[in-house]
């Protein structure tokens, strides 16, 4: 790890200083290397992996081995960013012992510095135990995609006064349990603002307005790479899907028309023995 790398305690310090935290998801070494080079503070190996990389319909099919495999790749690519690994469905809900073993693997074998898990007061025992054994935990409130069937869809959360109170109490409870930050997903911005004011740990918003202490986006969404569904709050900073389709078409046409590869001059044959890393 570089000495200028982002560490867990830096999150709270950033909130104290009023400096916003920029997070993105990453799933492979190349993307991690590029986003790290761009200066992102933390990379989440999110279970959105299931949808944007593995082609599943939701996050529920993602396994610990999937996240472990991709966390290792991200850890090989990133130098400065803090790496947070998502705990997949059923890797922390069954028992605290299971949760410690599974989170421990993401740190020990995956190279993550922290884990993220969904839920508030129902998962407090797990959060406390992980923190007690030295595993930093990022909470996740508001829309919790692992509960998609119970909720009935990917719906905006905390829209009723009693839900707002519950969310703020959950955020508080996570802080008390030792979580170092909490993601707020798909909640109204005034709710996110209130939660942000109530807790001493940074709130990281996604579809939660501008007043959180930081923001996170799914990198495939903000890069315009995953184009099957674009959440309304996403700003696409690039349109990589169009670029890839365009480049693919140009290559296919060149191959079919015999324009690629170009014939080589006889003098250059054998000049470049090393042709690449593969
Ligand atoms: O899995 C994920 O990518 C996430 C973010 C959407 C916060 O949990």
Written account of the structure:
It is built from eleven helices and eight strands. Strands 1-2-3-4-5-6-7-8 form an eight-stranded parallel β-barrel, surrounded by seven helices. The chain is elongated and about 75 Å long. The model has no long low-confidence stretch (mean pLDDT 95). 3-methyl-2-oxobutanoic acid (KIV) binds next to strand 6.
Element layout with pairings:
Blueprint: H1 8-17, E1 21-25, H2 29-38, E2 42-45, H3 49-52, H4 64-77, E3 82-86, H5 96-108, E4 114-116, H6 124-132, E5 137-142, H7 148-151, H8 161-177, E6 181-185, H9 189-198, E7 203-206, E8 214-217, H10 219-222, H11 240-256
The structure holds 3-methyl-2-oxobutanoic acid.
The number of helical runs is 11
Report the major sheet: 8 strands, parallel, barrel
* Termini separation: 27 Å
Low-confidence residue ranges:
none
In this entry the ligands are:
3-methyl-2-oxobutanoic acid
Report the mean per-residue pLDDT as an integer.
95
Structural class: alpha/beta
Sequence of strands across the biggest β-sheet = 1-2-3-4-5-6-7-8
How much of the polypeptide forms β-strand, as a percent range? 5-15%
Number of strands: 8
Percent helix:
40-55%
Q: H/E order of the elements?
A: HEHEHHEHEHEHHEHEEHH
Oligomer: single chain
Gross morphology? elongated
Rg, please? 21 Å
């Amino acid at each position: 790890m570089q000495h200028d790398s982002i560490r867990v305690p830096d999150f709270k310090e950033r909130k104290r200083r009023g400096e916003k935290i920029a997070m993105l998801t990453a799933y492979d070494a190349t993307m991690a290397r590029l986003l790290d080079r761009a200066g992102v503070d933390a990379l989440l190996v999110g279970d959105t992996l299931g949808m944007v990389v593995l082609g599943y319909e939701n996050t529920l099919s993602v396994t610990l081995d999937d996240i472990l495999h991709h966390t290792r790749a991200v850890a090989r690519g990133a130098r400065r960013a803090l790496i947070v690994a998502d705990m997949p469905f059923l890797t922390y809900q069954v028992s605290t012992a299971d949760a410690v073993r599974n989170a421990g693997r993401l740190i020990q074998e995956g190279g993550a510095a922290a884990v993220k898990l969904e839920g508030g007061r129902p998962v407090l025992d797990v959060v406390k135990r992980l923190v007690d054994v030295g595993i930093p935990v990022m909470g996740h409130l508001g829309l919790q995609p692992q509960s998609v069937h119970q909720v009935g869809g990917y719906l905006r959360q905390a829209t009723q006064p009693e839900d707002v109170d519950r969310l703020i109490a959950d955020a508080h409870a996570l802080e008390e349990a030792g979580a170092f930050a909490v993601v707020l997903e798909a909640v109204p911005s005034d709710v996110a603002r209130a939660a942000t004011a109530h807790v001493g740990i940074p709130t990281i918003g996604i579809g939660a307005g501008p007043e959180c202490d930081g923001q996170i986006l799914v990198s495939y969404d903000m890069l315009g790479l995953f184009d099957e569904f674009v959440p309304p709050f996403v700003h696409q900073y690039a349109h990589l899907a169009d670029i890839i389709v365009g480049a693919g078409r140009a290559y296919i046409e060149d191959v079919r028309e015999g324009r690629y590869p170009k014939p080589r001059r006889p003098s250059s044959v054998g000049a470049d023995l090393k042709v690449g890393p593969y």
